[in-house]
């Protein structure tokens, strides 16, 4: 039995298809973040990009996401170490830190169902910027507090 590609192929050597398939589709990277100017601590909010479908946790126009006017960033193999704002469960981050994919990952289970069941997605947990008055009221993590 052969090992799966994510266990044998370094991130920088993966094909574009392999790289894209690592994304578990949780939608966490599509949430707006706030950064403390003094400590560089990242605070995750439940405020979603307007292109995020809150039921599927997918971009409403993925092929054109960089032309949408939103601040969508392309995650690339050569700059993965710069994306320290990615959630700790993000497959790109997990693999770049030498860890293994979690058991609920769609590459392991074959669907997003286990990820949603493990409560690892933003499904039906977001608000959109138009509904936000005070961003700090939407912080989901409170590090060091």
TrEMBL record:
Q: Which residues form a coiled coil?
A: none
Query: Which family, according to UniProt?
Result: Belongs to the UPF0260 family.
Species in which this protein is naturally found: Vibrio thalassae
Q: Can you tell which superkingdom this protein's organism belongs to?
A: Bacteria
Its recorded name reads: UPF0260 protein VTH8203_00628
NCBIfam families hit by this protein: PRK05170.1-5, PRK05170.2-1, PRK05170.2-5
């Amino acid at each position: 039995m052969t090992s799966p590609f994510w266990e044998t192929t370094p991130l920088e050597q993966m094909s574009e298809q392999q790289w894209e398939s690592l994304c578990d589709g949780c939608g966490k990277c599509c949430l707006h973040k706030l950064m403390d100017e003094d400590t560089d601590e990242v605070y995750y909010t439940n405020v979603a990009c307007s292109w995020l479908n809150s039921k599927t946790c997918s971009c409403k126009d993925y092929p054109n996401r960089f032309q949408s006017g939103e601040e969508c960033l392309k995650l690339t193999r050569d700059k993965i170490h710069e994306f320290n704002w990615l959630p700790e469960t993000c497959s790109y981050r997990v693999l770049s830190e030498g860890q293994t994919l979690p058991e609920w990952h769609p590459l392991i289970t074959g669907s997003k169902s286990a990820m949603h069941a493990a409560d690892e997605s933003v499904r039906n947990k977001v608000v959109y910027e138009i509904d936000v008055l005070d961003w700090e009221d939407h912080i989901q993590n409170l590090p060091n507090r």
